Amino acid sequence: METITPFSPVDTLLSPLGQTASLLAKPAASFEIKGAEFQLPRYVFIGPKGGDDPIRIGIFAGIHGDEPAGSYAVVKLLQLLEQQPEIAKGYWLYVYPVCNPTGFEQQTRCSARGHDLNREFWNNSNEPEVQCLETELWAHAFHGIISVHSDDTSSGMYGFVRGATLSKHLLEPALRAAEEVLPRNRENFIDGFQAVEGVIKQCYKGVLSSPPKVDPKPFELILETPGLAPRLHQEQALVLALSTILTEYRELMGYAPNL
Questions:
Q1: 23 phi and psi, to 5 degrees?
Q2: In CATH, what number does 20-252 get?
Q3: Whole-number pLDDT of residue 136
């Protein structure tokens, strides 16, 4: 009798992208943990030429393995871009749907080695996932870095801004677009940080971010969905937010020096 190998959760997540002809799919790295081999998937979508040098954006999801909505959302974004490539005009998008493959497989926040990977960046971490992602962040010199998460203690969408000054000018329209599906968290304190209309300017140490002292600084955004909302709604809200960021940044590039 033939043995059928079941799909892993990561395989199931990524299976729709096997039919997406315009994607360049190549793992960012392979590594071994507890005798098992894992890959850190990476997809590159090259949008229609926009005139100048392409804008490089890194989109990262699933660094906490128990937050699957972000991973499914970026897969849906790539499927949308296949149908509407003009959204990504002028961009090279580097998309990392599962930054914590062992945690995603086990549905745990931390990796199989028991580490919260989103507290390990730029701190001489020994975690292979972090080392791989740090290499990617150095190598591609992104103009913008977007991370997507879910927060099961939040009543609505919110986000963190870091890096370049214009980051805050991108998060507000993204949250506004997402309100078509999910409410915004308008509390004065969110996740222990002071917030204004769902925008937080502080952050935890060690989160996925651009290399220290890099110049010029890219814009950096962290999008958070309410983790207890239906996953479909979280996915839809994130796709709206991400599409809006791409549109807004392309427009802002014309007058960013005046911000």
A1: -90, 140
A2: 3.40.630.10
A3: 96
